[in-house]
């Protein structure tokens, strides 16, 4: 029997191990799949903590249903009946600018009526179709792209908060084509974003008229989806499907070397195992450590991928303590506003059952690539700063009734300028190691959907290699 070892039990590793087992079965391939995880639990960045009736997400709080990957995996693993869609009002998102929470406009008329962007800023945005298409060779930053196509104000108030909301990133360093490849493609294909929107809307209308199936996700980003027990249900279900015997916890892989009876030897703090295929679903810096001896060139490229820090601050309040409505998803804050937090998610408005009866749960994010030093603040200082910001932004004068603070020293990989070149280098060098596959959020997308899509590709590649061995 052949053996495949998956290292790392976050969503990427779990999805890869589960899919590998399923694909091997349907291909009639006799395969032992093993997953090694260094912590005493699976889930990686996914962890749903229940305390005093509150459900606090340590990392992600869901995935968007406008891409099919995670939904499809849930269906395949028999987890779809337990899915929980976010409330409809979670479509309403806000930006805090110049002392006011502005609703993020969703269409042309609401954009014109919004006071978020000034009239000169709106005029500059309206000129977008006249801006020539990018002809440069260099990997453009998100900031350069935003300034060039949409103007400085849109960059500050729309693009930068979005980049901090998704990547906890700094638009001045992040690569457009690596972070948002679709946007780069739209400019290349249609000559501009407004032109692309008009053409795509026309095509959608035509498709509907011709009776073709068209994605019907509510809102431009789809519907945020989780589980009643929190997003950890997803990784718990996958672990259970893979099977207790195949998942080893508390085992830290130290090295991947050439094997003697099989192509690879996986060396951990517990011993050694030989494998026909190895999938490393670990963060880039951890993968670099494992590959140092086998391929120093790959390790060097992996070490070039930086990570942003993040502090997640959960505050629970009795509902009557908050005078404003919490009808929405929450808000993001442009850096120029000089606040401590990057934004706040109104978690108990997004999903039911995130707070006990008569209470609300707010989750604020601090740090990111723009404020790396915040990770070192002690709890009392974090709480003081978040309270001060919530007072100015939401008018909450009282201290919270419930507090939980989580720190991620290496929260999210940053796809900075040069990321695509690094990936091309890794791909080239990986050709020397057939059956050694890298996956996870360090490469082609950090969303749960991206991790599951990458797991599909990794499991396909592993099956192909195993069949040919
Ligand atoms: C605060 C926060 C909020 C987020 N919000 C969202 C959201 O709402 N929606 C969304 O789609 N995405 C969100 N993301 C991104 C998403 O959570 C991650 O990209 C995704 O969970 C990463 O999964 P992964 O399996 O690739 O990596 P990880 O979850 O980091 O898993 C890697 C695993 O490898 C293990 N490991 C490391 N080294 C070793 C070793 N030597 N041996 C064995 N095991 C090892 C680790 O312990 C870990 O379990 C968020 C991220 C953060 C930090």
From TrEMBL:
InterPro entries: Amino_oxidase (IPR002937), FAD/NAD-bd_sf (IPR036188), Flavin_amine_oxidase (IPR001613), Protoporphyrinogen_oxidase (IPR004572), Zeta_carotene_desat/Oxidored (IPR050464). It comes from the Bacteria. Pathway: Porphyrin-containing compound metabolism. FAD binds at residues 12, 253. Its cofactor is FAD. Residues 11-462 form the Amine oxidase domain. Keywords: FAD, Flavoprotein, Heme biosynthesis, Oxidoreductase. GO terms for biological process: heme biosynthetic process. This is Protoporphyrinogen oxidase. The gene is hemG.
């Amino acid at each position: 029997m052949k053996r495949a070892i998956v290292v790392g039990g976050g969503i990427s590793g779990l999805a890869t191990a589960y899919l590998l087992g399923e694909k091997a079965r349907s291909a009639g391939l006799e395969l032992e799949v093993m997953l090694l995880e260094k912590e005493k639990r699976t889930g990686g960045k996914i962890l749903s903590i229940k305390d005093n009736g509150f459900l606090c997400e340590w990392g992600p709080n869901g995935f968007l249903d406008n891409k099919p990957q995670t939904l499809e995996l849930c269906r395949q693993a028999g987890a779809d009946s337990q899915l929980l869609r976010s409330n409809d009002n979670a479509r309403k998102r806000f930006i805090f600018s110049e002392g006011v929470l502005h609703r993020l406009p969703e269409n042309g008329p609401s954009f014109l009526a919004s006071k978020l962007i000034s009239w000169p800023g709106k005029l500059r945005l309206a000129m977008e179709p006249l801006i020539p298409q990018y002809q440069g060779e260099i990997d453009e930053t998100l900031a350069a792209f935003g300034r060039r196509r949409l103007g400085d104000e849109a960059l500050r108030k729309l693009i930068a908060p979005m980049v901090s909301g998704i990547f906890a990133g700094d638009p001045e360093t992040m690569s457009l084509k690596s972070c948002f490849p679709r946007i780069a493609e739209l400019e290349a294909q249609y000559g501009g974003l407004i032109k692309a929107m008009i053409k795509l809307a026309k095509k959608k209308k035509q498709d509907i008229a011709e009776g073709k199936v068209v994605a019907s996700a509510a809102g431009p980003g789809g519907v945020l989806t989780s589980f009643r027990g929190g997003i950890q249900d997803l990784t718990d279900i996958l672990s259970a499907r893979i099977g207790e015997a195949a998942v080893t916890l508390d085992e830290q892989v130290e090295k991947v070397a050439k094997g003697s009876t099989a192509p690879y030897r996986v060396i951990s703090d517990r011993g050694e195992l030989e494998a026909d295929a190895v999938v490393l679903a670990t963060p880039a810096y951890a993968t670099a450590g494992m590959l140092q001896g086998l391929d120093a060139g790959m390790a060097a490229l992996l070490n070039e991928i930086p990570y942003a820090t993040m502090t997640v601050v959960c505050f629970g309040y009795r509902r009557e303590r908050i005078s404003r409505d919490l009808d929405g998803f929450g808000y993001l804050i442009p850096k120029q506003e000089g606040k401590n937090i990057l934004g706040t998610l109104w978690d108990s408005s997004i999903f039911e059952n995130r707070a006990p009866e008569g209470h609300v749960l707010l989750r604020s994010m601090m740090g990111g690539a723009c404020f790396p030093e915040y990770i070192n603040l002690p709890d009392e200082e974090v709480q003081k700063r978040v309270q001060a910001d919530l007072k100015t932004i939401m008018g909450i004068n009282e201290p919270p009734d419930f507090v939980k603070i989580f720190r991620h020293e290496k929260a999210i990989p940053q796809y900075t300028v040069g990321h695509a070149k690094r990936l091309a280098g890794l791909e080239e060098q990986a050709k020397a190691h057939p059956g050694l596959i890298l996956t996870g959020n360090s490469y082609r997308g950090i969303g749960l959907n991206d991790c599951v899509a990458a797991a599909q590709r990794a499991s396909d590649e592993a099956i192909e290699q195993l069949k040919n061995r």
